[in-house]
Amino acid sequence: MNFQEEVQKFIQEHFQNTLPTIALDLVIFGFHENQLKVLLLRWKGGDYWMLPGGRVYKKEDVDDAATRILRERTKLEMLFLQQFHVFGKLNRSSYFSAQETYKLLGIENLYSPDFRDVSVGYYALVEYTKVNPVADNFSDECRWWSIDELPCLLFDHNDIIRVALKTLRRQLSYQPVGYNLLPEIFSMTDLQSLYETILGRQLDRRNFYKQMMTYGILELSESSPKIASRKTPYLYRFKKERYEQLLDDEELTIG
Amino acid sequence: MNFQEEVQKFIQEHFQNTLPTIALDLVIFGFHENQLKVLLLRWKGGDYWMLPGGRVYKKEDVDDAATRILRERTKLEMLFLQQFHVFGKLNRSSYFSAQETYKLLGIENLYSPDFRDVSVGYYALVEYTKVNPVADNFSDECRWWSIDELPCLLFDHNDIIRVALKTLRRQLSYQPVGYNLLPEIFSMTDLQSLYETILGRQLDRRNFYKQMMTYGILELSESSPKIASRKTPYLYRFKKERYEQLLDDEELTIG
User: Fold this and answer.
1) Which of A37, A162, A218, B238 is least enclosed, having the fewest CB within 10 Å?
2) Predicted model pTM
3) How much of chain A, in percent, has pLDDT values that exceed 90?
């Protein structure tokens, strides 16, 4: 069975077991070296990139399907995952037409002008160092891309990332987002740098410190120096219970 | 053709022309006598209430379908309409099982345990006095209900309203919401009262005034008194362009 036949067989079987018309796309954010990154897949045998995604089994909650797909690509449990937008345009191709896309993917025989998927977008926040990105059956590669250097993605996936980033920025104002993106122990400078990277602008150091303390989600780590200096700053960890209470209040999902 | 046959015929035809598995539900908010209200439909021949909703035609954008459904129920153009959440649980029945629901609706012969809809929730803000609620083919009545006095709705529609209200409350903090819910001319007290009703708590009068002025979206109406008193307060109108610019920045839909 060649690749095209294999894809065709998989897709036909998978479509029989999953809901029609609905696909999920996942924007998985990580933070490394002061850059915000997303996980992308490269389709087998080409140089075309796309978001990880999947479909919903007939007897599966939509949110559970998103959690499952996220686990498959990251091999992590306990992840921050949130539904953020439905992408429901009739034409969801930004750079290539639907027909061109099928051709680029080497599956033009599967193309039908009547086929249509509405995509439910989810975004996830994961700790960069803990993730071992896993390609799926149809990808040669799964790796991090800096959001400032994204290639032209298939379908409307650049749009999906843009809206996910906008949502993340907006949520920073009423929600502590750092917990899932930072290592367990971090300095206030690390945390501020994360916020600045997401927001794309500088923040005032004293106001930032005050805002974080108001949330009541930080405590000094036992490995923190007793007296801080520029070279050995105070080290913090998140108070998990308080953080999760804040998440609950906003009804966020921890997978 | 009796009612049940008519419903069956309509549903079968409608399903052939629309996307499978996806339904839309609309939470249409209005504001009247210091109460936040939502539009509900009463199914023909019974006392069971639900949200207005519909399906997406095969060649129609999902957002366009929501706009169309909103127009059909309110007969208004130019409405504030925003997608807010996907309700994708396998079991979307809060008070009655799916089978019971079909029975209550008098369409038990249409029930199938394999049928499933994922609902995309939209909320709309409309000016109460301008709306003439229109029932659909399968409803005896379409009318306003105060959100404090909702009956037990069919499916998961109480949940959908709860999440819509939560979204509306959250958006108040970064967005001027009053434009679509108030009449053209209003006092600062009217506007504050709207905010207090949505938030479910009292606000400080001076801070509220300051915040509204910071948005830069209000101007004095020509019908405002030159010097205000308690009985004849200043009257404002929204600056439409500035308001829409703020909407654009947050990518909201005006249908």
Assistant:
1) A162
2) 0.87
3) 44
In what side-by-side order are the strands of the sheet with A218-220? A186-187, A235-238, A218-220
Token digits of residue A67: 């959690």
Please give the CATH topology (third level) of the domain spanning A174-250. Answer: Arc Repressor Mutant, subunit A (1.10.10)
Q: Which residues lie below 8 Å from residue B252, measured CB to CB, with a gap of 6+?
A: B80, B82, B175
To test the contact with chain A by mutation, choose from B15, B16, B18, B21 the residue with the greatest count of A C-beta atoms within 10 A, namely B21
Provide the residue ranges of all domains of chain A, joining segments of one domain with +.
3-171, 174-250
Say how many CA atoms lie within 13 Å of A131 toward its Cβ: 29
Q: What is the CATH number of domain A3-171?
A: 3.90.79.10
Per-residue pLDDT reduced to its tens digit, B34-82: 899 999 999 988 899 999 999 999 999 999 999 999 998 888 876 788 9
Residue A43 in tokens: 């389709």
Tell me if A205 sits within 8 A of A244, measured CB to CB: no
| A52 three-class SS | coil
Contact A63 B120 (CB under 8 A): no
Instruction: Encode A176-189: b = buried (16+ Cβ within 10 Å), e = exposed.
Output: bbbbbbbeeebbbe
Residue A252 corresponds to which tokens in the numbers above? 């966020």
pLDDT above 50 (res B238): yes
CATH 2.170.190.11 for domain B173-254, yes or no, is no
Report residue B114 as tokens.
């394999």
Q: pLDDT class for B255, splitting at 50, 70, 90?
A: very low
Q: Answer yes or no: do B89 and A61 touch at CB < 8 A.
A: yes
* B13 CB-near residues (< 8 Å, 6+ apart): none
Q: What is the pLDDT of residue B249?
A: 60
Q: Using an 8 Å Cβ cutoff, are B245 and B178 in contact?
A: no
CB-based contact, B164 to chain A, within 8 Å: no
Nearest chain A residue (CA) to B63: A88
